[in-house]
Every structure is written in structure tokens, then in C-alpha cells.
């Protein structure tokens, strides 16, 4: 059975009828032609489909579209402004932070969302208890980005790319 | 995935009525486990009642010094809450040790408690599994045993409960407030989940249509000295082989009070009551911790493929208690 939902993706509003079983990922990729979020595992185990959902990073493969009617979504493609790359996109290029590129949109969106979480003062599993301020060292970046797998193992370049943006 | 209906209730009473009237319905919150199970064909509800915007998203102080956590509070927000980090660090750490940043932003407090086992046979509809289809058998007993239970399993099921958060909640004697067709209930987290027995299909004592409204954290001063330790096959973004949630109150070198719970070892968070009894009044030294761990693990009945969990749990218990009691305990070896 179809339900009408409205989604705002990268600044454009879309209204579409979706089957109740349709995830945000499939609504974007199969119905709207928005292929920036990638389908890796489709089970919340790889992070390739990561989007910003109402401002926070989330796995779009596990979110049903009907449950997120009216959502504000940002994909990696929507991070660029006025034809200019987002600093995170630029840093990934400068640091050669990918090989095949399939996980890259999810990595970039996740990294942007992760830095927002740091700004909000959120701890991670490796944050020392009682730390007033998070020091985003390599261990912190690796832990906070552990939800994004890269089968090419470009981690060695992904970490410094994110660190560069974090410093600026 | 089978076709299914989706409904968003106007309020909690309507949601409860909707689900009570649908024997094959399920509540949907964050969906991080349920949507996955729908895709796998493991969960086959004909109706989803969305409660994500119905229950509380607030973390509130209670008059008695405890804290009330709304069922819709996201795992990430609960973990980051300054009061939780200060008064119940074990809970914050358990949440941060679970899943990933983007999953914690979707997952809710109520949903986390009700997530299903990650037993590979439960999640694979081509294999026999008593939990998924009663009476078909248990593939894990003679199969891949690494992740299975060492406590409280039955002939019918050896699966473990996957939640980290629930282990911390069991340790601090948290309570779950529910609302169902028969009214409200207050259930200790230690009694929320069941051992499999002859009905492994039932993870919890909740009745059909019963909705988790809040989780209540009782005042527990010494929980400020608590921590969660998770041991797993990779350093992050993996389920526990063994985990330990502990809080200790040491006065003049003696354990005045202690809370200890284990994860990854049973069909429910395993409150280590035997170890707690031995520890209360004992000197806060490594030998006491080892004796307590041994007493608790004496009841373990591991399978050949997960016998390693016994010494692993022993070491994790001792290490966690040493971390909480400082170097003074180590000198007492």
C-alpha cells in the first residue's frame, strides 16, 4: 500500500508515494534518482548510506520513508555550496582518502556529522571520563568513524583528511 | 519483505489499542533492529505502529535523586547527557560502546531494550531456530558457538542478548515503566528479559501491546564510580563476546557495596549476584575480585566453542574492579 511522503533532500522538496516498506535509501536512489548515498550492505553494518537526517548523521538503509515524512536530508552531493566543494570533500581529494570511492559519500557525510557531534560536546567510547573538552586525536577519529567501513582500507588517508578539517 | 500496514497513532492510548487489536503487529521506534529483521524475513508483522514521536524524549530529574529517561530518548543523547556521564558513567560508556555514531542517532532507549539476539541462526530464515520458529530446533548448539551463552541457556536456545545499555541498566537496578492493554507496570530491568527455557521465542515478560514509556534510574550515589568494559573481536562497532558493568563503593579498603552485571553471556543481562554477595565486606584487593569472579563463573555451562568466555569473563571482571578501586587493590596481590 502506498503512502504519500514529502522529503526535502539537498534543498529540494519532493513529494512521492512510497510503499510502507521503502527505506529512505531506496526512496532516494530508486525513486528520486539521488544516488549519492550508496547501498553497501543494506543492513546498517557499513555506513555507505549515511546521510544527515534532520541535522544528525544516520543510516538511511534502516529508516523507513513513511516514518520520516517531512524529513530534512543532506547527502554528500548536497554538501557542496554554489559550485564549491565542501572542505571535507576537498580534504578527501587532497589526502587521496579513497580508492574505489564507493564508501566515500558516506564517509564524508559521516565525518561532517561527526564534527557536529564533537562541537556539541558529545563523548565517544575513547573519550576519557570527565574530559570537559574532546581532543579529536587519531584514536577519537577512528572510534567515531567506526560505523563507516572501507573495503579498500583507505583509513590511513581518511583519518588525516578528517583531522585537517577538524583543525581548520 | 511481506506487505505491511503502517500507522501513526495520535497518542499512547490509541497506539496501545491499535497494537492490542493486531495480533501480528509491532511497535516501531528507531527501527535500527526491526527494519533489518523485516528485510531478513525474520520479523513478519502485518502492522507497524510508529511510537517514535509518542513517548517522551526527555531526561528528567526525579524528586528522590533518580533520573527518568523517556523511551524515545536517542542512544546518542543519553550517552552524552552530562548528568548521566557524571552520576552513571557505566550507562554512558555502555551506550558509546554499542553500534556506531549514526546508529546511535536513530536508536531509542525503549527500542534498545527490545532488540533481538544477533545469533546468526536466528537471523537466517533458512536454518532451524526455536526462537524464530518454535519446535524447529537449535542450530547453534551443534553449530557456530563462539557468540553463544554460558549461563542460563536451555536445550531449546543458547542465544545471547545483544544490548550493552541493558547490561548497565541491570547493574544499577533500573526500572522500566510500561503501559499496556491491562494498565501500567513497573518492571525491574533485571526481570524484563527472560531466560529461554522452553519458550525462547519470548525475549521479555512484556505482553502483546505493552509499550515501554520510560526507564527509571534509581538514586545510587556510588554509581558515580562505575564503568563498562566490553571485549569483542574488533575494537569498535561489534557485539560483545563478554562485557562487564560494575559500580563499587570502597570505604577504608573494604568493599561496602557493589553492583556487577555481565553481557554477552546469557539470554538476558546477567546480574552477578553471587559475586556481589562475596564482594560485600571483602577487602578491595585483586584476590577478592578473583574469588568473586570464580564463584560467579562456577555456574557457567559453556559449549566447546565458547569455553574461552569463562576465563575471558573472569579476567574482565577482575580488570574492571581493579580499574574502579585503583592501584591500592593491585598492591594487595
From TrEMBL, chain A:
<keyword id="KW-0411">Iron-sulfur</keyword>
<protein>
    <submittedName>
        <fullName>Xanthine dehydrogenase YagT iron-sulfur-binding subunit</fullName>
    </submittedName>
</protein>
<keyword id="KW-0408">Iron</keyword>
<comment type="pathway">
    <text>Alkaloid degradation; nicotine degradation.</text>
</comment>
<keyword id="KW-0560">Oxidoreductase</keyword>
<dbReference type="InterPro" id="IPR006058">
    <property type="entry name" value="2Fe2S_fd_BS"/>
</dbReference>
<dbReference type="GO" id="GO:0051537">
    <property type="term" value="F:2 iron, 2 sulfur cluster binding"/>
</dbReference>
<dbReference type="Pfam" id="PF00111">
    <property type="entry name" value="Fer2"/>
</dbReference>
<dbReference type="InterPro" id="IPR012675">
    <property type="entry name" value="Beta-grasp_dom_sf"/>
</dbReference>
<keyword id="KW-0001">2Fe-2S</keyword>
<feature type="domain" description="2Fe-2S ferredoxin-type">
    <location>
        <begin position="3"/>
        <end position="79"/>
    </location>
</feature>
<dbReference type="GO" id="GO:0046872">
    <property type="term" value="F:metal ion binding"/>
</dbReference>
<dbReference type="Pfam" id="PF01799">
    <property type="entry name" value="Fer2_2"/>
</dbReference>
<keyword id="KW-0479">Metal-binding</keyword>
<dbReference type="GO" id="GO:0016903">
    <property type="term" value="F:oxidoreductase activity, acting on the aldehyde or oxo group of donors"/>
</dbReference>
<dbReference type="InterPro" id="IPR036884">
    <property type="entry name" value="2Fe-2S-bd_dom_sf"/>
</dbReference>
<dbReference type="InterPro" id="IPR001041">
    <property type="entry name" value="2Fe-2S_ferredoxin-type"/>
</dbReference>
<dbReference type="InterPro" id="IPR052914">
    <property type="entry name" value="Aldehyde_Oxdr_Iron-Sulfur"/>
</dbReference>
<dbReference type="InterPro" id="IPR036010">
    <property type="entry name" value="2Fe-2S_ferredoxin-like_sf"/>
</dbReference>
<dbReference type="InterPro" id="IPR002888">
    <property type="entry name" value="2Fe-2S-bd"/>
</dbReference>
Automatic annotation (TrEMBL), chain B:
<dbReference type="InterPro" id="IPR036683">
    <property type="entry name" value="CO_DH_flav_C_dom_sf"/>
</dbReference>
<dbReference type="InterPro" id="IPR005107">
    <property type="entry name" value="CO_DH_flav_C"/>
</dbReference>
<dbReference type="InterPro" id="IPR016169">
    <property type="entry name" value="FAD-bd_PCMH_sub2"/>
</dbReference>
<keyword id="KW-0560">Oxidoreductase</keyword>
<dbReference type="InterPro" id="IPR002346">
    <property type="entry name" value="Mopterin_DH_FAD-bd"/>
</dbReference>
<dbReference type="InterPro" id="IPR051312">
    <property type="entry name" value="Diverse_Substr_Oxidored"/>
</dbReference>
<dbReference type="GO" id="GO:0016491">
    <property type="term" value="F:oxidoreductase activity"/>
</dbReference>
<dbReference type="Pfam" id="PF00941">
    <property type="entry name" value="FAD_binding_5"/>
</dbReference>
<dbReference type="Pfam" id="PF03450">
    <property type="entry name" value="CO_deh_flav_C"/>
</dbReference>
<dbReference type="InterPro" id="IPR036318">
    <property type="entry name" value="FAD-bd_PCMH-like_sf"/>
</dbReference>
<protein>
    <submittedName>
        <fullName>Xanthine dehydrogenase YagS FAD-binding subunit</fullName>
    </submittedName>
</protein>
<feature type="domain" description="FAD-binding PCMH-type">
    <location>
        <begin position="1"/>
        <end position="222"/>
    </location>
</feature>
<dbReference type="GO" id="GO:0071949">
    <property type="term" value="F:FAD binding"/>
</dbReference>
<dbReference type="InterPro" id="IPR016167">
    <property type="entry name" value="FAD-bd_PCMH_sub1"/>
</dbReference>
<dbReference type="InterPro" id="IPR016166">
    <property type="entry name" value="FAD-bd_PCMH"/>
</dbReference>
Amino acid at each position: 500500500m502506498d503512502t504519500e511522503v514529502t522529503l526535502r533532500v539537498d534543498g529540494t522538496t519532493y513529494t512521492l508515494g512510497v510503499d510502507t516498506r521503502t527505506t529512505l535509501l531506496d526512496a532516494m536512489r530508486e525513486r528520486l534518482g539521488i544516488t549519492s548515498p550508496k547501498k553497501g550492505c543494506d543492513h546498517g553494518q557499513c555506513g555507505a548510506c549515511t546521510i544527515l537526517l534532520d541535522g544528525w548523521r544516520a543510516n538511511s538503509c534502516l529508516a523507513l520513508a513513511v516514518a520520516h515524512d517531512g524529513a530534512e536530508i543532506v547527502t554528500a552531493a548536497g554538501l557542496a555550496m554554489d559550485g564549491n566543494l565542501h572542505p571535507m570533500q576537498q580534504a578527501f581529494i587532497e589526502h587521496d582518502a579513497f580508492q574505489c570511492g564507493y564508501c566515500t559519500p558516506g564517509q564524508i557525510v559521516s565525518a561532517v556529522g561527526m564534527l557536529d557531534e564533537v562541537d556539541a560536546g558529545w563523548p565517544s567510547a575513547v573519550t576519557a571520563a570527565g574530559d570537559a573538552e574532546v581532543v579529536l586525536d587519531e584514536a577519537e577519529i577512528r572510534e567515531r568513524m567506526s560505523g563507516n567501513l572501507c573495503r579498500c582500507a583507505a583509513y590511513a588517508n581518511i583519518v588525516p583528511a578528517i583531522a585537517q578539517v577538524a583543525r581548520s | 519483505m511481506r506487505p505491511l500496514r503502517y500507522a501513526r497513532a495520535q497518542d499512547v492510548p490509541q497506539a496501545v489499542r491499535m497494537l492490542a487489536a493486531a495480533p501480528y503487529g509491532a511497535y516501531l521506534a528507531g527501527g535500527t533492529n526491526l527494519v533489518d529483521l523485516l528485510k531478513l524475513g525474520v520479523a513478519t508483522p502485518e502492522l507497524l505502529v510508529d511510537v517514535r514521536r509518542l513517548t517522551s524524549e526527555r531526561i528528567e530529574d526525579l524528586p528522590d535523586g533518580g533520573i527518568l529517561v523517556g523511551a524515545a530518548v536517542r542512544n546518542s543523547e543519553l550517552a552524552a547527557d552530562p548528568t548521566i556521564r557524571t552520576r552513571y558513567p557505566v550507562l554512558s560508556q555502555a551506550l558509546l560502546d554499542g553500534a556506531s555514531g549514526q546508529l546511535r542517532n536513530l536508536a531509542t532507549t525503549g527500542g534498545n531494550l527490545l532488540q533481538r539476539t544477533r545469533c546468526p541462526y536466528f537471523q537466517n530464515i533458512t536454518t532451524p531456530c526455536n526462537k524464530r520458529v518454535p519446535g524447529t530446533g537449535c542450530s547453534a548448539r551443534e553449530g557456530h558457538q563462539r557468540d553463544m551463552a554460558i549461563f542460563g541457556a536451555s536445550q531449546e536456545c543458547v542465544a545471547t542478548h545483544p544490548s550493552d545499555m541493558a547490561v548497565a541498566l541491570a547493574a544499577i537496578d533500573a526500572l522500566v515503566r510500561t503501559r499496556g492493554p491491562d494498565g501500567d507496570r513497573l518492571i525491574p530491568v533485571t526481570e524484563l528479559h527472560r531466560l529461554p527455557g522452553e519458550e525462547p521465542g519470548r525475549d521479555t515478560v512484556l505482553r502483546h501491546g505493552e509499550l515501554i514509556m520510560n526507564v527509571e534510574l534509581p538514586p545510587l550515589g556510588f554509581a558515580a564510580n562505575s564503568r563498562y568494559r566490553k571485549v569483542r573481536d574488533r575494537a569498535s562497532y561489534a557485539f560483545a563476546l563478554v562485557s562487564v558493568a560494575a559500580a563499587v563503593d570502597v570505604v577504608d579498603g573494604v568493599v561496602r557495596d557493589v553492583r556487577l552485571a555481565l553481557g554477552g553471556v546469557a539470554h538476558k543481562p546477567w546480574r552477578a549476584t553471587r559475586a556481589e554477595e562475596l564482594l560485600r565486606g571483602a577487602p578491595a584487593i585483586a584476590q577478592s575480585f578473583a574469588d568473586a569472579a570464580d564463584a560467579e563463573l562456577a555456574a557457567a555451562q559453556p559449549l566447546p566453542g565458547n569455553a574461552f568466555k569463562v576465563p575471558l569473563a573472569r579476567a574482565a571482571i577482575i580488570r574492571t574492579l581493579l580499574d574502579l578501586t585503583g592501584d591500592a587493590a593491585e598492591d594487595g596481590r
